[in-house]
Write a structure and sequence with these properties.
The complex is a heterodimer of chains A (702) and B (306). By secondary structure, chain A is of the alpha+beta class. Helices cover 56% and strands 11% of the residues of chain A. The chains are: A alpha+beta (702), B alpha/beta (306). The A-B interface holds A 1, 4-5, 7-8, 11, 15, 163, 599-600, 602, 606, 609-610, 613, 624-631, 656, 659-662, 665, 668 and B 213-215, 217-218, 233, 236, 261-266, 269, 281, 283-285, 298-306.
Chain lengths: 702, 306
């Protein structure tokens, strides 16, 4: 007996442990998903999640047997809510809601006892995965969240049916997922693409992207990153390397050390945002058409080759252009942002220089950098006309041993003097800053433009070429005003280090070895190793296609897709399309359900008999689920008058004959199946009328 | 005509064992399905009488082995004795070489003897000193057993219980039946039973019983029952495929006795508790549910819904 009990307790134990593994898996999933939202979820909430997991682990490994009591948890929940309200008050609704969700999951994890709790937590986890996609959308994260969904489904299956083998669960889940995939894909393609209902997070990404001011003298070593800035897909041949100046921010305000965006321009831009007024310069000449997918910068600057105009319906709606040829979006880029532009590299920027423009672009601080002032005034007296004056200044960079370096010395006092005459080593901002300052001193309106220069060209046969521009491609150059040609780009860096412009930073920094020096494991550093470089290019390509086809899929692309299917978008065709899609989904679902249903439907005989049973059961006599037809018939004979029991007996007999008798044996069945069914139907109507009569009789009697 | 004989056999047996018609029918069902029968009840309930009556009524050769703890396999199977006249060993068959063997109080014998009997039951032959001797045909064992909690018993292991097609319990007769039993004893003494058929007829009946039609739907019902016993966690020992076969053949014999040539769910339900109860074991150690395991099984499955 003890042996038997042992065996049974072992069986029970294994069921229990399989359930516990499921709970542990759920806990692990919660931790992983919460930590994937690291930047959003508050640290103490993450700690609570970890605590919950530790409790689950302790119970699984039998270090501890009891869950925290409800009273403890209620107190904890109360305190947490207060803490959350405190932190969420100024952080915004989305932030608060995501944190609340994670918090609720963590507390549920600690409290989870019954089946209902487990199901609730699992549903919340799916919701949390949905939230995860608000913040992380890259391929890696999508795969991660997909995997997490599968793990959750798996643990649900394990919890629900602990006695079934793991392999069977895995099989079920993979079959279900494969069945769901085409439906999901179809939904993705055809469901209306709504813009988000919440305000996407803004502040936390301020470190990436370009900054709105530069102080070249303060920087000892320029930190670089191999993160992607944006990608541009060209419809035709992309521009040559020397033409790839991606304009982003124009800085006109200089105080002797720092360049920043002028307040006057900022006000203009705010005004423009309010009125949605476009500045539309007239641009002529050959042009490039291309599409840019910008990574989230949390700023509103956009990147385009010099002198660009937004094209396409989306471009003109969401992108504004300011009078200094900057493109900016109406909202900061919290997600990847795709837009179409057309650039005119040779366009004469023959615009008028307003008085305000002129004043802003000539303004220099009255003090400081004395050596430069003297030098410029000396040169100016030598070369009174502008072009030769500019040439003379540029010659200074060529004639002297200037060096392009990413590790300049710090120049805190009179930075331009020190750069031009003592150090003579610096990176693009130093050169641009010095040149623009000198030109302004000489009375030529000039300004600094920052952005990116270069990019890695990737050409796929049969597909349009695209350029990947990374953060380390950031660059700064000068624009000076000429009365005949308008704003002209002058890049002093190109004189000192032509390699930087033609081959990119990597080539220019070959000797110094400072390219991406502070991120030693960046794949971009390792281009010398062929297979690593191949992997890097492959990953970049994958990411590009992901951004372009999945993340970039919005209402516009959706409409394009419909157009390519339907030709012209008329309401009838759209409704046809909708109907077709519903039909396709219904078809896919029916592929799954119909065989099941056909199997369960039973034969005509059975359905007729069940109808008779239903009719009887409506009058209150329930058949015990295990009762056989004969036994039930006897019960009916005992309790009902003949007008009911007689037809029912006939139906039962016909049912028994059709279901259980040997139909092939002709000696026993004189009637064929169809005749029997007809008789069953006839008796069924008799039965129903009989039941009605019996009912009225009973009422009369009472 | 044959059916009449079957009815007569039942009627005859009923005159001896008053008020035990269902049990007699089940016992007859078991024999018609060509299976061995286990009767489990307290002493004095008519176990021996039932088997004796059946043997008489059906015209089977009958022998009885009283199992005791010192009974050896040879006592039951037979022995080779040296014959001085013929200068060779001669086999003296034991009491098992009969068509119907009553193995009385089977659980009082030692496991060794039990297993010798059970082997003979399964193989329908006896191997002794390297020689295999077939047992007569038909060959039935009716084992009787006292409830296992009585002292001096070796309970049969589950694997051997499985060899008995059916297990029935006789139970106490009701007042009316017991009264007429007493009256019968006071009157003309022992009722004599008549043999109603010969062996050839009995074998024909067996064949006919096995030809009862079982439709797909009915087979599905049996399979649902069996599968439920395997998938539910209420049964520690679910039903084996041998049990499935036993269920079908007994149900057929039951339908045949009830004069029907096709099976309906009620046939299966009628024999289910006799066929399944001794093969099932409860998963919970709670003994209170032990008695009704086949009832749990029966009531869990709807014979009509597919």
């Amino acid at each position: 007996m003890s042996n038997k009990q042992n065996l049974e307790s072992k069986k029970q134990h294994s069921l229990q442990s399989s359930k516990n593994i499921a709970l542990l898996l759920i806990a692990a999933t919660l931790v992983l998903i919460s930590f994937s939202l690291f930047s959003t979820v508050l640290t103490w909430i993450l700690l609570l999640v970890t605590c919950g997991t530790v409790i689950r682990g302790a119970i699984y490994f039998k270090y501890y047997k009891h869950l925290p009591s409800i009273r403890t948890l209620n107190l904890l929940a109360l305190l947490s809510i207060l803490g959350l309200i405190y932190s969420a008050l100024n952080a915004g609704l989305l932030f608060g809601m995501v944190n609340l969700l994670v918090l609720a999951c963590a507390l549920k994890l600690m409290q989870m006892r019954s089946q209902k709790d487990v199901y609730q937590l699992i549903i919340s986890l799916f919701f949390l995965i949905g939230c995860g996609f608000i913040f992380n959308q890259s391929i890696g994260f999508s795969l991660f969240y997909g995997l997490m969904s599968l793990v959750i489904l798996f643990s649900l299956a394990c919890y629900h049916a602990p006695s079934i083998a793991v392999q069977k669960h895995i099989k079920t889940i993979s079959v279900l997922s494969l069945q769901a995939f085409p439906i999901g894909l179809l939904m993705f393609l055809v469901l209306p693409q709504l813009s988000p209902l919440w305000h996407t997070p803004k502040a936390n990404g301020a470190s990436t992207g370009l900054s709105e001011q530069i102080t070249p003298g303060d920087i000892a070593a320029l930190s670089q990153s191999s993160e992607l800035a944006f990608r541009a897909t060209f419809e035709n041949i992309p521009p040559i390397a020397q033409q790839r100046y991606w304009r982003a921010i124009v800085m006109e305000d200089f105080d002797g050390k720092t360049w920043k965006v002028h307040q006057y321009r900022q006000k203009m831009r705010e005004l423009q945002l309010k009125t949605k007024q476009q500045f539309k310069p007239k641009l002529t000449g050959p042009y490039f058409d291309y599409t840019v997918i910008a990574e989230p910068t949390f700023q509103s600057w956009l990147f385009a080759l010099d002198l660009a105009q937004p094209t396409g319906p989306r471009g003109s709606r969401n992108i504004l252009q300011s009078s200094d040829f900057q493109l900016f979006s109406q909202q900061p880029l919290a997600n990847k942002f795709q837009y179409e532009v057309r650039s005119y590299p040779n366009a004469l920027s023959s615009q008028t220089l307003t008085l305000a423009d002129k004043r802003v672009n000539l303004q220099v601080p009255e003090q400081g950098n004395k050596k430069t002032r003297d030098w410029v005034s000396h040169l100016r007296s030598q070369f009174p006309d502008n072009p030769s004056f500019i040439q003379a200044i540029l010659r200074h960079f060529v004639d002297n041993p200037f060096v392009y370096t990413l590790r300049p010395e710090v120049m805190l006092v009179d930075p331009i003097d020190r750069f031009l005459f003592d150090n003579q080593a610096g990176f693009c901002s130093h050169y641009a800053s010095a040149l623009a300052y000198a030109l302004r001193l000489g009375g030529i309106p000039s300004r600094i433009v920052t952005g990116y220069q270069g990019g890695e060209l990737i050409t796929n046969p049969g597909d349009s070429a695209y350029l990947s521009v990374y953060q380390y491609d950031a660059h700064a150059w000068v624009e000076s005003w000429s009365d005949t040609t308008g704003w002209q780009r002058i890049d002093p860096t190109a004189l000192v280090s032509p390699d930087r412009i033609e081959y990119g930073l990597r080539q220019a920094m070959l000797e110094e070895g400072s390219f991406l020096a502070d991120s030693p494991f960046a794949l971009a550093r390792l281009t010398n190793i062929a297979w690593l470089n191949n992997i890097r290019l492959f990953l970049a390509d994958l990411d590009y296609n992901w951004s372009r086809w999945v993340l970039g899929f919005n209402s516009q692309t959706q409409r394009d897709l419909f157009k390519s299917i339907l030709g012209k978008l008329t309401p009838e065709r759209l409704s046809m399309l909708g109907l077709g899609i519903v039909l396709i989904i219904a078809l896919l679902l029916s592929l799954f359900f119909v065989p099941h249903w056909l199997q369960n439907r039973g034969s005509t005989t059975q359905r007729l008999y069940l109808k008779a049973l239903n009719a009887i059961e409506k009058t209150g006599t329930q058949r015990a689920t295990w009762q056989g037809p004969n036994a039930f018939n006897q019960q009916i004979n005992e309790h009902y008058p003949t007008i009911v029991s007689e037809p029912f007996t006939h139906i039962t007999q016909l049912y028994l004959r059709l279901s259980y008798q040997n139909i092939q044996d002709t000696s026993t069945s004189v009637l064929n199946v169809k005749q029997c069914h007809r008789m069953m139907r006839r008796y069924l109507t008799q039965l129903k009328t009989g039941l009605l009569k019996a009912d009225t009789n009973r009422i009369k009697r009472t | 005509m044959l059916h009449n004989k079957l009815a007569m056999a039942i009627e005859q047996s009923c005159q001896v064992l008053i008020g035990k018609q269902p049990q007699i029918k089940l016992a007859l069902t078991c024999l018609l399905a060509n299976g061995h029968l286990l009767i489990e009840d307290l002493p004095g309930m008519g176990k021996t009488t039932l088997s004796h009556t059946l043997a008489k009524v059906l015209g089977l050769e009958y022998s009885r082995i009283q199992f005791t703890s010192d009974l050896l396999p040879a006592d039951m199977l037979g022995i080779n004795i040296f014959d001085n006249n013929e200068q060779s060993f001669r086999f003296h068959p034991g009491p098992i070489f009969n068509q119907l063997v009553l193995a009385d109080e089977i659980n009082r014998a030692s496991p060794k003897t039990q297993s010798a009997l059970l082997e003979a039951m399964e193989e329908r032959q006896v191997s002794l000193d390297g020689e295999t001797r077939p047992l007569p045909s038909p060959f039935f064992v009716i084992g009787t057993q006292n409830p296992s909690h009585q002292s001096g018993t070796y309970p049969l292991p589950e694997s051997q219980l499985d060899r008995f097609l059916m297990r029935i319990q006789l139970g106490y007769p009701d007042k009316e039946a017991e009264k007429s039993m007493l009256k019968a004893q006071l009157g003309d003494g022992q009722h004599t039973v008549k043999t109603v058929m010969d062996i050839a007829e009995f074998i024909e009946l067996q064949v006919k019983a096995s030809q009862v039609h079982a439709s797909d739907e009915l087979l599905n019902y049996i399979l649902r029952l069996v599968t439920f016993s395997r998938e539910s966690n209420q049964f520690a020992n679910p039903l084996s495929p041998r049990a499935t076969k036993a269920l079908l053949s007994s149900a057929k014999a039951w339908a045949f006795i009830n004069n029907r040539d096709f099976l309906i769910p009620e046939d299966v339900q009628a024999v289910l508790s006799s066929v399944a109860e001794h093969r099932l074991r409860s998963a919970s150690s709670d003994f209170s549910t032990q008695g009704s395991l086949s009832k749990i099984l029966l009531e869990s499955i709807d014979p009509i819904a597919a």
